[in-house]
């Protein structure tokens, strides 16, 4: 009987330690705009500046946004009606977003086009479109060494002329933190 109790205790401790370890993986990080003179500020000045103004929830095209060791910049948004053989459905167009990801950390980071989604004014949040309109520039998946960067395009099918488009970037599977970029 004593042996069974010890096994249950061991199993309970093991389960608790696994839950505790996984709980640390999803630490909340907030995206923040990267200032142009980031290296010119001391840590104390950075903290003071952060306290003075609230963190942004939605960023703009051209802004560098840091989340963890990832720095994301959306540099261009283009629209396409497709090609002769690859067209969006009626009333829709392809929205092609050019992104750059930089690794500002000391360890390798992974990147993947599946880390991106697009929201529209109808409240729909969709994955990338299956299309060839950007096949020569499409973002692939891989890893970035410290200081490394990669750029590429992502294509989404959205209603023509939608003014409420946002690109959502969630680089860490274990986190709920998402960078949102207003594409207008």
TrEMBL record:
Swiss-Prot/TrEMBL keywords: Signal
Name under which the protein is recorded: DUF4352 domain-containing protein
Residue ranges annotated for the DUF4352 domain, each copy included: 60-177
Domain of life: Bacteria
Protein's UniProt keywords contain Ribonucleoprotein: no
Organism: Neobacillus notoginsengisoli
Pfam family, one: DUF4352
Presence of keyword rRNA-binding: no
